[in-house]
Amino acid sequence: MSVMLSFGHGYCARALTPVLLARSWEVIGTTRSEEKAKALEDEGVTPAIFGTDLSAAIARATHVLISAGPGEDGDPVLNAYGEMLERHLGAKDWVGYLSTTGVYGDHEGRWVDEDTPLTPSTQRGRLRVKAEAAWRDLAARTSAPLHIFRLAGIYGPGRGPFAKVRAGTARRIVKPGQVFSRIHVDDIAQVLAASIDRPDRGRIYNLCDDDPAPPQDVIAHAAKLLGLPLPPQVTFDEAEMSPMARSFYAESKRVRNDRIKQELGVRLRYPDYRTGLSDLLRRERGG
């Protein structure tokens, strides 16, 4: 039996889970919370508490997915289980690390691809660059079949703009030249499954849709789908945002996704935010 050990079994890993369960895989997912462990169990996942002894799970797993993000003290998975992973990772069929397109930094709206130099402009991006390097170093020492997936802005069920538009709290924040790339969580699951089926040791993939777009356009389209008035437009300098939200506007780039199509044969289910938002609204309405 194939066994997926998923470190930091969150939003993306939970989208992949039904795909693997349909193939009769076992999925072991880590969490730090007993309450979340029960929720994972209800979804067919074997829960494991991060920080406890996972030696049996690490030894049994045929595949490993790392979704946990790094902190100031480095990658949490490597910090907690690095020595054990070093003993076992080389024998796995597939290892996937979920990173971010934030590693590319700001390109003033220009296109980037997987070969673009990494010049992060935020602390989050810099931490991701270090984490990627740490996982690549481990893979080099162990001959582990590591794959790195750089994810654009993630949206999907429970992570769409509709709630704020309905509540009247959405704003169309305008910063000239600002564009973001996005990816529907179901397409993330699709790409991961395709990579598992066609492993290519050491390969890096950008995960994003075909239509980088200004954020205000997404909010406007959500309002249109709901049949509600356009949310007010405010300039970036005038907008009230948290430091975290404001930091996302420090980078503008268009991310290419040719590699997932050409090498993995992926055909995006939601190639742009318009098809993605229509799907989310259909699901909300029980369609």
UniProtKB/TrEMBL annotation:
Superkingdom of origin organism: Bacteria
Protein name, per record: NAD dependent epimerase/dehydratase family protein
Keyword field contains RNA-binding: no
Signal peptide from the UniProt entry: none
UniProt keyword NAD present: yes
NAD-dependent epimerase/dehydratase domain: residues covered: 95-208
UniProt entry keywords in alphabetical sequence: NAD
SUPFAM superfamilies assigned to the protein according to its UniProt record, in alphabetical order: NAD(P)-binding Rossmann-fold domains (SSF51735)
